[in-house]
Amino acid sequence: MSEAVVEVTDDTFESEVLKSELPVAVDVWAPWCGPCRMVSPTIEQLASENSGKFKACKINVDGNQEVAIRYGIRAIPTVLFFRGGAEVQNLRMIGAQPKSEYQKAIDKLTGG
Hints:
Helix content is 36%, strand content 23%. Strands 1, 2, 3, 4, 5 and 6 form a 6-stranded mixed sheet that branches. It has one domain (5-107): 3-Layer(aba) Sandwich (Glutaredoxin). The chain is globular, with a radius of gyration of 12 Å. By secondary structure, the protein is α/β, with parallel strands linked by helices. A hairpin with a 2-residue loop joins strand 4 (78-83) and strand 5 (86-87).
């Protein structure tokens, strides 16, 4: 994982995501999930390319069920988008998507 992406847990989710000054994209994944392994490098690229516009985080659902339950995660990969401590639900993306689709969501999230 690159330094542009922050690994979060159930314990750090509130401080890293909900209380973030920047809008946040959260990649919900698991190591055994093939499509998740395709999404991770894309999120890392976007975090680097959009540095300072948003914060990129990852959470492994295998060890962090509280967040998965709270946000009704039923399939992975799922990318959640947060602004001001709340999920921007109309931006939620389930399944692997093209990089351009994630960029569109980031642009909507950040107003850019």
